[in-house]
Structures are given as structure tokens and as C-alpha cells.
Write a structure and sequence with these properties.
The chain has 387 residues and is an alpha/beta fold. The chain has 2 domains: 2-125, Rossmann fold, CATH 3.40.50.300; 131-383, no CATH class. The protein is 44% helix and 17% strand. Strands 9-10-11-12-14-13 form a 6-stranded mixed sheet, sandwiched between helices. A 5-stranded parallel sheet has the order 2-3-4-1-5, sandwiched between helices. The radius of gyration is 22 Å and the shape is globular. The mean pLDDT is 94.
């Protein structure tokens, strides 16, 4: 079923292959990178496997001189390949679309890219399934609770939450240490559970460090690895030139909501809706869907949140260069005029050109500049299907 779902980012990958010798498709483990790459077609090598490295080594001259796209999965697992890639690309610099690299951890892959392939490669990110990519009503309705990993329940509900817990256990015990995280697996597990409870909150490294018996420097370094593995997003604060004290620390969100739901023992939608933190979960879900939609479509943007010392807040600020969008997210099916008025008051502080109140309303309303809508309608605005 996964291979039948067309990924939004596929068009972007194909377009980049037309103008770059190599493209790197990065994203978390098990989000569908291999399936997407194989749907494009080419010669495939899994570089986590020693036998595949040997096969590529023995067949290298024929592979790089051929006309087929060369797909190198988990490319960061074999650093030697980057020097070879640079040489092959430089010997035929005008040949485009030769290599597609897949990677599930950004720090080590980006070090290799910056050292060996700068100017020769374009970077594209793949997320777990976006709500707009899912074709059935049932799978779209499951997306918030289960998350978007193809095997995590969004397509087959019986997989949740066991799949999520096994996924995090494997990352904690094998992948993150292999990628350089110096923490013991037990410490990483405790950190992940704390972060699940902090979803949607302003990041306080000192507080977390005290709970773990670690310095805030160490906790921040651990968080770098979790962000690099596409587990966590640190949404920066928007710094406007206004006469108010602004909160400057980033807010912390899980990239996929199914993972913290599993860690917090949320079994079904009723259990989710009964949680005191359900509003933060919905907020994070909307933000990640919005940013995933924009990224998958190749839009250039910067994303922030905004909060003043006296608690005026915007959940999401999108800076498109020529436009600034202010977004407030509320878990309600009946947004009020007061909700829109509060959004307008805060959006005026940063001179936002468009304002969106995103809720679970069944009746979207408003004009181009001021809109109250549900998530699907908001995503339509982001994709350009609504002006």
C-alpha cells in the first residue's frame, strides 16, 4: 500500500536531478526514502551492508559510466564513497541526475556533503506521510494519533503503538550511539520520555539537565543528535523590533506526533482527547503538517513562533521573504470572534500580511488576509490551491 501513495516530494527530487549531478534525500529512518527512490528507478546499493559495499567497489567503473541513476542508500555509512563521488562528478561535470543519495542522519551526512560535494549536490527532505498525501478518509483521521510512518499504524492500525516503541528502542540502543551520541541508552530513553512530556513547550536545557544529572551543555548536545535524526524540531523565536520583552528560547516539538503519543501510553483517540496536553499535541501536529507541506513542495521559507513577556503569542510565523504569515492553532470546532481578535492584535505587532486561525471547524471562512479554517483548508492555502 505504501508504494501506491504518491509522495509530494517526488516531483522536487526529479526536478533537482535535472539540474544537479547528485541529490541527497534525507529524512528519518523508515519514512519511505527507499520506496520513493526505487519508484524513480536506477541501480540500487544499500551501503549499510558490507556485501553491497563490496559490490559497488567491484562494479564502480561500470556503474558511474553507465546511464542509469545510481541510488546509494544510507550513504553516510561508508564515508569513502564521497571522495569517489566527487571524482566521478568532476570528470563529467555537465552530466546531471547521476546519483541519488539516501540518508537518515543529517549531521554525519552533512559533514561529508560539505567537505566533498559542495556545489555538486542538492538536498531534499522527506517526511513521514503527510495528511495531504493520504487518500482515504480513515487514514487521514488516524494521522494525528498514529503519526505518519508507513509501518506505524497510519495504514495498518494494529501496528500502533508497538511499532513506535520498537522504533525508538532501536534508535536508542543502536543507531544513535553509532551516529556518535555518547549517552548511555538508558539516559537517552529517559530523555526521550521527558521530551514527550515537553512537546510544545519552550526549551529549558537547565531544567532537563537537573532532572538527568547532566549539565545544560550536555543536554543541548544530546538534543542536537535527536534533531539531526529528525526526531525533534527546535522552532526558533521570531525576534521583532517592538517595545516588548520577547521570549528568546526555542520551542520544542516532536517531528512525528505518533512517537510521543506512544511514549505517553495514549492508546486511542478518546485517550488522546482526555489528556491535559492534547492542545499542545494538536498544535505540534498542525505545525509539522504545514512545514512538511511547504518543504515537500520546495517552497523557500523560514518558520518561527512568537511570544512576548506578557503572553501575547503566535504558534507559527512563516516568513516567505515578501510575506509574513501569522498562524494561531486552537483545538476547537467552534472558534470565536474573540479568538480572531487576539490573533489580529498579536499579528499586528509583527506586521503580518496574512493571518490564519486553524482549528477543527467544519465551516472555513474569511478572505485572503484573514482566514478561519481547518487544517486541510490551511494546507490548501500553503500549497497555492487557494489564493
Amino acid at each position: 500500500m505504501q508504494c501506491m501513495i504518491r509522495r509530494l516530494v517526488k516531483h522536487q527530487v526529479l526536478e533537482r536531478l535535472k539540474i544537479y549531478p547528485a541529490v541527497a534525500l534525507v529524512g528519518p529512518r523508515q519514512c519511505g526514502k527507499t520506496t520513493l527512490a526505487q519508484s524513480i528507478g536506477g541501480v540500487y546499493f544499500d551501503l549499510e551492508q558490507q556485501s553491497e559495499r563490496l559490490r559497488l567497489d567491484l562494479e564502480w567503473d561500470g556503474v558511474v559510466s553507465g546511464k542509469d541513476l545510481v541510488i546509494l542508500d544510507e550513504a553516510q555509512s561508508w564515508p569513502d564513497v564521497f571522495v569517489r563521488l566527487r571524482g566521478a562528478i568532476d570528470r563529467a561535470r555537465k552530466r546531471m541526475g547521476r546519483f541519488l543519495l539516501l540518508g537518515s542522519v543529517s549531521p554525519s551526512l552533512m559533514i561529508q556533503v560539505s567537505e566533498s560535494l559542495a556545489g555538486r549536490l542538492s538536498l531534499v527532505e522527506l517526511t513521514p506521510f503527510l495528511m495531504s498525501e493520504l487518500k482515504t478518509k480513515a487514514s487521514r483521521e488516524r494521522r494525528w494519533l498514529y503519526g505518519g510512518y508507513p509501518d506505524g499504524g497510519v495504514l495498518e492500525p494494529k501496528q500502533y503503538p508497538r511499532w513506535q516503541l520498537d522504533y525508538l528502542a532501536l534508535l536508542t540502543q543502536r543507531d544513535l550511539p553509532a551516529w556518535g551520541l555518547p549517552a548511555k541508552p538508558q539516559t537517552t530513553d529517559r530523555l526521550l520520555r521527558m521530551l514527550a512530556a515537553m512537546h510544545g513547550q519552550v526549551w529549558n536545557a537547565s531544567q532537563v539537565g537537573q532532572s538527568l544529572g547532566l549539565s545544560y551543555h550536555t543536554v543541548n548536545s544530546y538534543l542536537d543528535y535527536l534533531a539531526g535524526a529528525f526526531l525533534i524540531r527546535r522552532l526558533p523565536s521570531y525576534q521583532a523590533n517592538i517595545r516588548k520583552r520577547l521570549v528568546k528560547s526555542p520551542k520544542l516539538y516532536w517531528r512525528d506526533c505518533g512517537l510521543p503519543h506512544a511514549l505517553l501510553n495514549v492508546s486511542d483517540e478518546r485517550a488522546l482527547l482526555s489528556q491535559p496536553w492534547v492542545g499542545a499535541s494538536w498544535e505540534g501536529f498542525v505545525i509539522e503538517q504545514a512545514l512538511g507541506e511547504l518543504s515537500s513542495r520546495g517552497r523557500n521559507f523560514s518558520a518561527y513562533y512568537f511570544r512576548t513577556g506578557d503572553q501575547h503569542e503566535l504558534d507559527l510565523v512563516l516568513d516567505f521573504g515578501n510575506e509574513l504569515w501569522a498562524v494561531e492553532v486552537k483545538l476547537t470546532s467552534s472558534p470565536t470572534p474573540q479568538d480572531m481578535a487576539r490573533l489580529d492584535k498579536t499579528a499586528d505587532m509583527i506586521d503580518a500580511s496574512r493571518r490564519f486561525l486553524v482549528s477543527q471547524t467544519s465551516r472555513p471562512s474569511g478572505a485572503k488576509r484573514r482566514v478561519s479554517c481547518n487544517l486541510p483548508t490551511f494546507l490548501d492555502h500553503l500549497s497555492g490551491n487557494k489564493s
